[in-house]
Amino acid sequence: PVLKKTIIDEQAGFRQGRSTSDQVLALMTYIENGSQQNQKTGTVFLDLTAAFDTVWHAGLLLKLSKVLLRWVVEAIELSLHYKRFQVHMSDKNSSWRKQANGLPQGSVLSPSLFNIYINDLPATQSRKFIYANDFCLGTQHRAFDEVKNVLNKDMDLMVDFLSRWQLQPSATKSVSSICHLLNAQAKWELNIYLKGQSIKHDPNPTYLGVTLDRSLSYHDHLKKTAAKVSSQNNLLSKLAGTSWGARAQTLKTTALALCYSTAEYCAPVWSRSSHTKLVDIQLNTSMCIITGTIRSTPLPWLSSATYHHHISDDRRPLQSC
């Protein structure tokens, strides 16, 4: 309850009732609303090098002391300060060293501790979309140059803050992008700088597993998703061809775990796209493999044979919103 009230609203990572789908949908809604007002939306996807491994213990404890009880902070301090490591090489060992940075990998506390560590981010003119250590800055304006100027100013603020707390923004992995409906200026690129170094402009950046494009058609994302499902269908075909894995129920369970989960990731974001057929074709193939039927089998028959309604039926309520 304490953390729920403390963590900023822009942070959606590892919080109850907030998922990756919700965060991507929030960003897409922001971009779409800007397009309806004839505005360009510039975005910067800021990457941190080994974010959890570079958290400064002393700085973290200072911030924890402002939001948690003293005995809780002391317990966390003990768990952090008694982490030691040693390097083994051939038959030689190094001396033991204490870790001054980094959060325990796999710990249930680490995500919450990281959220507190970056909770006092500086105020920016750009809107922030944050999921754990995935940062996105977005701003809107009718003029391209104004979008660029605002993002560069806010990037300076963000980089200064992160560097002060020993986090390392990566200029080589961070990218910028811009969304608009002006086909005549489709190749216009943002010039965004990180510590004086220009970062790459990517017309198709990926945010939390969803590939974006200038006009939010989601063609590239659905094309990639269809390719992934096709690869999973190949595994399903191999399983269907074995003597021990040919039962329909086994195939259905496998298809739900491999094919359907991949196909429907962040479906509320792209469900209204005109390119959803790319994914549906692969899911139809999945049902054919489960039932052992030929490609020309009518889709309603496939759904009945697998006792599973067609996936496009799930999207109809989303498409009508």
TrEMBL record:
Organism superkingdom: Eukaryota
InterPro entries hit by this protein: DNA/RNA_pol_sf, RdDP_mobile_element, RT_dom
CDD domains associated with the record: RT_nLTR_like (cd01650)
Span of domain Reverse transcriptase: 1-212
Protein name stated in the entry: Reverse transcriptase domain-containing protein
